[in-house]
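EI: anyone free to look at a 721-residue chain?
SC: sure, send it
EI:
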Amino acid sequence: MNNNDESVHIGVRRRKPRPQDISHVIEAMPVPSSWNMSQPPASGEGNLRLIKGAIRFEKLDISLADRMAPEPPEAGPVLSPVDLDPADRILRREQKRRVRNRESSIDLFDLEKRIRADRYIDSGRFSRDADRRLASSNYRNKLEEERIRTGLNHNIKRLKFNLFEITVITLFLVIIDLLPGAGILLPGIYTSQGFTILYPIISLIGLVFTALVSLKDLLSGIKSLFRRNFSTLTAMSTAILAELLHIAYILASNFFTQKPVYGTFAAPICLAMLVYTANRLLHTSRITRGFAFSTKKGIHSEVMSADDSPIAADLRLASGSRSAKIAYVVRTKHLFNYFTNACREDKCSVMMSGIYPIVLIVSLIAAAIAAVRGAFTESDPINVAFSALCATLVTGIPITGLLSLEVPLSRLAARLRRGGALLTGWNAVDRFGDTDALAVNTTELFPRGSIRVRRSFAVNDMEIEEVTSIAASVLIDSGGALAEVFGELIRDDARLRQRVDSITYETELGITAWVKDKKVLIGNRNMMELHRVLIPGGGLARLDEFESMRKNDCFQMLYVAVNNRLMGVYMLEYKAQMSVRSALLQFIDDGTGIMVYTCDANINIQLLRAVFDIPPRFISILDNEGSRIYDSVTYKVTESAEALIATDGSLKALSDAVRASVVLKDTEGVSMMIQGICFAMGFIFVAGLSCISPYAIDSMEILIMQAVFLLLSTVSILKAM
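SC: here you go
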């Protein structure tokens, strides 16, 4: 929750924000020397505004009572079912029935025609047409949200059933190929002379059934091949098409010329298809659950990157680093472009788009060389060419990249959702995986219950209850962590609050305000000394007595002076909640610092070090310019923000999401390295063997190679898990 009047009312009074309710507080601003605080400004209700580098109180035409009043209901005719004639009611009932039937049979592949896109979608960024069409959907309308959610849930059920079918087929074909290698021959399928006609028939049936299960995806892969928009799906579709032609030639050759039957590569292709289907299921499940989070009612806290906004240079300058990557949090009502970011393909698929043309060329060259060698060795040149082509194309499927990236992303995204955070996909990982600093508010560091008033003293002739009422009026209007503390002291009773005419924050000192023509100072000891406040009972020595009551640096004294006379003293204890402390320690472990936006003079680097036990070099307090910039982008609830990382507002969820981005970015690099090594070694090895000798490699050897590659890819998965 940010330090502003709107956020306080939203959290406490559950008031719906209105367009004219734009009150906010700009904190951490030093008072310029030209400011004359001897006279109060004009009385009246108003808001704080930054005018020429200083905070000033600007009167508004809207009164406080008008701002707190509920919104009037929208005017318009309201018709009840009684006011309609029977024919009209029947017509409406029939329309509702048709709408329900249409919603229940939604097809996600038709979303592009029915829903207008949020923005232009680059087709090269998505590896599947389904993702490309889904990414173009606009879900601002509640009816469209339900339709999309229904379609996604239907896809999950379909993929689960497909995964079961492909698993059964793959296990059957793998057993047929692996048992002969173990010395076990199956009667009726294997003979001492070689393979019988039953083996390619079984392989053909299994491969055709597997292709029919994912026919839409495979057709998209074939289209992408002709469009030269290569991806993992292109590699899968090409290998299946080549192997189907290979098996068809084997059957035709055996039927017409009675040539001996050789092995096929149906089993390794089905295994790759199994891994691909599992990847699709994880992908769709992650998108569905994240979509439910992004469309949840209420206000989301969306993490923004200063690198892509106009405030980047100013915020970096305020932080003291010209190259720092800074993130901050804004509150928003709607998260847009969720599918655009969630369906973004990973770097492994991007890599495939560049190297797959090489795979095709090398495969065709290997097939041509194998055919020439087969002609000179009295082998069937066409069958040898098909074997070399299919073996290299199967090895060209990046089977390690199918799971080594989607598994950790889906698992971490599910864990974050349980903790109240949303990580959309690889766009968010790329954007926040190397964040250097995070701008936070004091209300996030010290949520409700973290600050307590241990003792209070009435120093002059004013009762402590009246002093508390004045201090609470000022602090609640200024916002910040102390607003909730003093709101509890007056039991959130609006009758005890007084009208505040002006509020100004003096950097590292405190707040100067005017309450009913009285000048009120609320701050630390330095502020009392600087303003030469009259202190009864010993002057500065009396302040020494109050300061000696502090047990350690976690205790701070807050002084309240009215009309330049000290009236009350409060001893505050700052405690760290375990969730906040663990979140800050996670930031530090990742080398990420925090930039604190505060209007409480007691909250400084020394206090944060004592409370949270973190090194001072990771903490910076926003200066005048930094506070102005931070407040300008975070003080109000925005209508919409791009869906990358969203949280429920807690610092723990924010820390987990940023940390997950850092881990996944490292994982992506490790996975690409593993995939590159496995891909290069396996492909070069298979292509070389296919050129050297006909039938030098068979289905069983490729299955073993795939198993080794999948085992190696678990290194990056375990690292992220």
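EI: The first strand starts at residue 46 and ends at 51.
SC: 👍
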